[in-house]
Design brief:
This protein is mainly alpha-helical. The protein is built from 41 helices and ten strands.
């Protein structure tokens, strides 16, 4: 809004709105300033009156009390004034004064009327009056910057934008914030409370609770405000008022959202704007509104949210009413949706419930554990008791039918994985396998084929199984669940878009599809993979940086963090410091109760160690994991790459042949064939290598082959390019030549000066305390450095470390003095 400076009462300088500069001849017969307290409605009217008096010499009569207004509207003396200003905020939509006001406005020769009100009259035709609302009175960013300059306010950068956005340009709050930053501010504060949004809420709440009930009913604004006080999260869908149509309710809710009472969010269930009361304002409302009224409002909110099928609002209201049994049933039916979409306020409501209060509610315990786990500060003591109670509760629950049995088993699997219990999760997924394998007429899959409601449920439920299987490194079962999700996909499901994306994600990883479906949500990881397939390393790194910032908790870190680590190893090894691989491995190992890290993390860590020159350590890691848990395709590939770096192509080729059974889809098949070609080249079989490369290209295409070639050292790529090749293969190798090739051709262990000194001390028989004393460091520092040395040398203990270092010529046999 354009504004010009005008001096008001010194020393504060205010802005005069251009909208208040209206000549008498242009003034409408009726101007309504329909704005809530704190929006400068009276200031605007005062500026308008001053302008009319100074510019046109008008006689302006001010009426600020109900008796004076009533008397003036019935008297002919009002015709001695050119303009009548009625400043009475208690006027609501059904106020009895409106007929007289509208009648005077329609009378020829009558004074122009400027009326301040809380609502517009119900009988008003909009074209019959000029209406000034909160949106018209809000200060723009330019207005705030100008006001700050006029008053020499020294405010921190960004506050102007905060005032314009978070505080919606509310004039009272803008002035209060700026006054605090102007010269002599302590003596010039207009308000003692630093949170004027709380003052404003207090004023409205006071009006709400102290005015006559009849006025509340007559005012759509007060009606909406009163109902909004019953829920911490307010949406249009839970508001209702007898006598007011939907358009009126929407208009009043929009006005409410302009108030600086909290934050605005987008409701994923309705697509509508929602208002989350701030902590301060919500606490204030709790003190003002009596418990009986608050409970009545919550009951009405619950009824409205049930009528509209609003899941989140129902759950928040049930929790506020302490009706945990009903809340538990709601969560059981909609756990997939609630785990995917948990607004901050709902998360706070769930985690604030004591465990004892919901001990008999397994689904609520499951959701509470999930929310607690997915926070950066999560530790087992904060979430594990909730998962324990969920697992125990589901074990006692009797299933009504096969669908119910499936849902219980999947929730137990989800809780077990989240609790780090591999064995418990595998038992639950085995039950899921048996249920889905049934060929009975009333089996789950048979029912889903004929009943859309069961198909819709099955898609969301299958996600829980796919997620659990991914964390367990059971990729075959994960793909089976993804197939179920795709086969029974239902666009009407609340999680349809997310379910479809996660189902297709596995196919992108497998290379079955080569583009990310852009009509799905949460496609960041697959976008990164597609970017790599196309050679766009910069985009891929940017995406995994984003994903990494969101992935700070187990167990999803087993999959997402492993992927991030692998991409960094292949594309940006310089971003991996010495602690990253060890930290990821330790985190995964510490999460699972059996002490065994995720295979995905093991393989990714091995790649990271390999590109850092720790080929022996990388091989030792995957060998040890294979002895304890067996090899899957990814760990077998990591083992083969380490063997090739250590000049063991025969063993690498044998490992790759053993891994062929797991390479059943395009991406794994391409990687397996390309690394097998590298092994044949190292054995001097160049013709066999070219055949394997050509097979990879013909079977999997250019993108998958180019991705696989990232695992090949640059020297091998150049060797192949120098030999005889057909055109398609040469073109693919030419593309690959421009990509990063971080895997080393040969392992070259280089010890730092500190590491060499440390291994020599160990060779000479010194203990850690003795080494610490000689080097003037702590024993913990020596232990940490020793662990890194063993990992780099691929040694199991100090004796083996000395032997390996001597074998590689990294140390001599002379004893240090």
């Amino acid at each position: 809004m354009d504004a010009v400076a005008a001096t008001v009462a010194a020393p504060w300088e205010d802005l005069t709105r251009s909208s208040a500069h209206v000549r008498h001849a242009d003034l409408a017969p009726l101007t309504l300033v329909c704005a809530l307290p704190g929006w400068g409605g009276s200031t605007w009217m005062r500026q308008l009156g001053d302008y009319l008096e100074l510019t046109d010499g008008c006689t302006v009569r001010w009426l600020r009390s109900r008796p004076l207004v009533d008397k003036a509207l019935k008297s002919t003396e009002t015709h001695h004034a050119d303009v009548i200003v009625i400043d009475d905020l208690t006027m609501t939509a059904a106020d009895p004064l409106w007929p007289a006001i509208l009648g005077m406005a329609a009378t020829d020769g009558a004074p122009a009327l400027v009326v301040r009100c809380l609502d517009l009259p119900l009988s008003l035709e909009r074209e019959a009056a000029v209406v000034i609302t909160e949106a018209d009175l809000a200060l723009s960013l330019e207005d705030i910057e100008q006001l700050s300059t006029l008053n020499q306010a020294a405010i921190p950068p960004g506050l102007h934008m905060t005032l314009a956005s978070r505080y919606r340009g509310n004039p009272s709050i803008v002035r209060q914030r700026l006054e605090r930053s102007t010269p002599g501010a302590p003596m010039r504060l207009a308000h003692s409370d630093a949170r004027l949004d709380v003052d404003l809420a207090a004023d409205l709440a006071a009006r709400l609770t102290h005015i006559a009930p009849a006025m509340q009913v007559a005012s759509p604004m007060l009606n909406v405000l009163r109902q909004a006080c019953g829920s911490r999260r307010v949406s249009l869908g839970v508001l209702h008022a007898d006598g007011f149509d939907d358009a009126t309710l929407r208009e009043q809710f929009t006005r409410l959202t302009t108030q600086p009472f909290g934050t605005l969010d987008l409701d994923v269930e309705t697509g509508e704007t929602v208002l989350d009361w701030s902590d301060e304002v919500w606490a204030l409302l709790g003190r003002i509104i009596d418990p009986t009224t608050r409970r009545e409002l919550r009951e009405r909110t619950l009824a409205a949210s049930r009528a509209t099928g609003h899941i989140t609002m129902q759950l928040m209201t049930l929790l506020a009413l302490s009706r945990y049994g009903e809340a538990d049933r709601l969560v059981f039916d909609h756990f997939r949706f609630l785990s995917e979409q948990t607004p901050a306020l709902l998360a706070r409501a769930v985690t604030s419930i004591p465990l004892d209060a919901i001990r008999a509610c397994p689904s609520l315990c499951l959701l509470a554990g999930h929310v607690r786990l997915t926070t950066p500060e999560a530790v087992p003591s904060t979430y594990s008791p909730y998962f324990d109670r969920a697992i125990a509760g589901y074990a006692r629950r009797e299933a009504a039918d096969a669908v119910d049995t499936l849902r219980i088993a999947l929730r137990r699997a989800y809780a077990s994985v989240s609790n780090g219990d591999r064995a418990g999760a595998r038992r639950s997924l085995a039950l899921v396998t048996d249920i889905l394998a049934s060929d009975a007429d009333d089996s789950v899959l048979a029912l889903a084929a004929t009943r859309p409601d069961i198909a819709r449920t099955l898609t969301a439920e299958a996600y829980l199984g796919m997620w659990a299987a991914t964390q367990l490194d059971d990729h075959d079962f994960s793909r089976e669940m993804a197939t179920v999700m795709i086969d029974h996909h239902d666009p009407l499901s609340k999680t349809a878009a997310a379910d479809l994306h996660y189902a297709l994600m596995g196919r992108v990883f497998a290379g079955v599809i080569t583009d990310t479906p852009h009509d799905t949500v949460g496609a960041a990881i697959t976008d990164a993979l597609v970017a790599l397939d196309n050679g766009d390393e910069s985009t891929a790194l940017g995406i995994i940086d984003y994903v990494g910032a969101l992935t700070g908790y187990a167990p999803s870190a087993s999959a997402a963090e492993g992927f991030i680590l692998a991409v960094r190893a292949l594309v940006a090894p310089h971003t991996l410091d010495a602690h990253v691989p060890a930290t990821s491995l330790a985190t995964s190992q510490g999460f699972w109760t059996d002490g065994r890290p995720s295979s995905f993390i093991v393989a990714a860590t091995s790649l990271a160690m390999l590109v850092r020159g720790e080929a022996r350590g990388a091989l030792a890691l995957v060998d040890d994991h294979g002895r304890r848990a067996g090899h899957d395709w990814f760990t077998a590939i990591a083992q083969a790459l380490a063997l090739l770096a250590l000049d063991e192509p025969v063993q690498a080729a044998e490992r790759l042949r053993a891994a062929e059974a797991g390479a059943t889809s395009p991406r794994p098949r391409a990687v397996n064939l390309v690394i097998a070609a590298m092994a044949q080249s190292r054995l001097g079989h160049d013709g066999a290598a070219r055949e394997l490369l050509a097979t990879a290209l013909s079977m999997t295409g250019t993108r998958m082959t180019r991705f696989a070639l990232r695992c090949v050292p640059a020297a091998d790529i150049e060797q192949w390019r120098a030999g005889p090749l057909d055109d398609p293969l040469r073109a693919t190798l030419d593309l690959s030549a421009g990509d990063t090739h971080a895997i080393p051709r040969h392992a070259s262990i280089v010890l730092t000066a500190i590491e060499r000194e440390l291994v020599e001390y160990i060779r000479d028989g010194l203990t850690y305390p003795q080494i610490a004393q000689r080097r003037f460091v702590s024993i913990n520092t020596v232990r940490t450095q020793a662990r890194g040395l063993l990992r780099k040398l691929g040694a199991a203990d100090r004796v083996e470390a000395v032997a390996v270092a001597a074998e590689l010529g990294l140390i001599g046999t002379r004893t240090r003095p």
